[in-house]
Q: What sequence folds into this?
């Protein structure tokens, strides 16, 4: 039987593991953490709150195939995410910035004028990128665009990335457009849900298959070595396939240089009230050292006497000291990553997958989609969802 080792039990690794296992491969998944699910991991604390220790995760996608694949492993609870930004001491406005925010921050007369100018220049279409908005040559719109840039994007991004927004790939700012409507949802995708029993339960169901072996608390660096186009496992040549979802610079001993990642520090606090803030997430776009505060009970819609919030502080990634959460999408970093991608091609049965190894700022749905695509390209078979066995609590 063909063997596959998958490094990383996050959504990328778990999805790949399940697909190959369904296809008859013997799969071993290793992860250095104590938990599966990667950064999407969650647990229920002693007070019954669903806590996401690696940061707030909300599922959303336009990809029917991804939604149907995951629906084999979880039931869903409808949840549409809303975010507010604290732009002044007592002023919370919707993010993405929309017409409601415009009217909250400017006089009725000025807001109407700006709205009309925006429509003239950008039409009534979908979201506008802040990067396009600030290029306007109309002086009145320019003043407005500069206001939004400074008060919503610039300081938040400096905190989050430690570099100016203009030095990041434009796709980063484009994740959060400016709306010429009253749209106040953070995402506009067709499918917006939370897994009914949490992300951990969903990933655990994905990995629950007789051909999948799981080894946690196992660092790939201590087990796997690459040399001269050959893969070694515990010193012996491995003739199976290796799918790697960790940091690729680490895999290759940093031979083409260090790839920077952004890490986070989370400060959890229990508050003696049933509701701490007006939205599940409040972004601190001008003040404070943290970027955002998440109130978990607002995801699960279960108000209790207390509530748990987490403040998020972004930090540089330091190997073995903290976790690499985000690749930093800049031209220079992509060039370095391309050298590692090229290096990986020297290994016939090595595939890079996931947010860290492909150095792409992807959401969970794209992580799943990319694992499906990898499975299809390696096996030459198109995914047939009918053959994926439903695995949920009580289903087997
Ligand atoms: P990861 O989840 O990072 O998993 C990689 C796994 O590999 C980890 O478990 C790690 O321990 C393991 N690993 C790494 N190196 C080694 C090694 N050497 N040996 C063994 N194991 C190793 N996406 C959304 O769709 N919606 C959201 O709301 C959302 N919010 C997010 C919030 C934050 C704070 C962050 C950081 C990400 C968020 N994402 C969100 C993105 C989401 O986390 C990723 O798209 C998804 O988790 C990627 O899965 P992955 O398996 O590629 O990577
Ligand atoms: N962003 C911002 N202000 C906000 C929200 C987002 O400047 O209020 C920028 C910031 O650079 C952030 C990026 O847009 O890193 C993407 O935001 P998103 O909410 O998608 O980030 P994530 O949830 O992935 O951390």
A:
């Amino acid at each position: 039987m063909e063997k596959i080792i998958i490094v990383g039990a996050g959504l990328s690794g778990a999805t790949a593991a399940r697909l190959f296992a369904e296809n008859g491969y013997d799969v071993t998944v290793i992860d250095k953490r104590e938990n599966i699910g990667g950064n999407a991991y969650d647990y229920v604390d002693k007070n019954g709150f669903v806590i996401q220790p690696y940061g707030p995760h909300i599922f959303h996608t336009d990809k029917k195939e991804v939604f149907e694949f995951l629906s084999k492993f979880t039931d869903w609870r409808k949840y549409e995410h809303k975010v507010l930004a604290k732009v002044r001491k007592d002023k919370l406005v919707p993010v993405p910035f929309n017409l409601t925010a415009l009217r909250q921050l400017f006089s009725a007369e000025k807001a109407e004028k700006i709205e009309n100018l925006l429509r003239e220049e950008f039409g009534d279409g979908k979201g506008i990128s802040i990067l396009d908005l600030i290029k306007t040559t109309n002086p009145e719109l320019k003043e407005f665009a500069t206001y939004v840039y400074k008060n919503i994007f610039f300081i938040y991004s400096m905190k989050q990335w430690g570099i100016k927004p203009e030095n990041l790939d434009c796709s980063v700012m484009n994740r959060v457009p400016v709306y010429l409507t009253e749209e106040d949802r953070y995402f506009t995708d067709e499918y917006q849900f939370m897994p009914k029993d949490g992300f951990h339960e969903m990933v655990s169901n994905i990995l629950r298959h007789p051909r999948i072996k799981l080894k946690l608390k196992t660092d790939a660096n201590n087990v796997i070595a690459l040399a001269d186009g050959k893969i070694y496992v515990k010193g012996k040549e491995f003739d199976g396939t290796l799918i790697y979802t960790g940091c690729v610079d680490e895999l290759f001993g940093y031979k083409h240089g260090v790839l920077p990642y952004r890490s986070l520090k989370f400060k959890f606090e229990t508050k003696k009230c049933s509701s701490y803030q007006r939205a599940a997430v409040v972004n601190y776009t001008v003040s404070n050292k943290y970027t955002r505060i998440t109130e978990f009970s607002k995801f699960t819609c279960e108000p209790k006497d207390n509530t748990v919030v987490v403040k998020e502080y972004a930090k540089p990634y330091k190997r073995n000291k903290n976790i690499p959460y985000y690749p930093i999408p800049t031209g220079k970093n992509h060039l370095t990553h391309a050298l590692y991608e090229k290096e990986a091609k020297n290994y016939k049965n090595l595939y890079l997958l996931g947010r860290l190894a492909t150095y792409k700022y992807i959401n969970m749905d794209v992580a799943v989609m990319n694992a499906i695509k990898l499975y299809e390209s390696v096996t030459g078979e198109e995914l047939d969802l009918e053959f994926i066995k439903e695995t949920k609590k009580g289903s087997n």
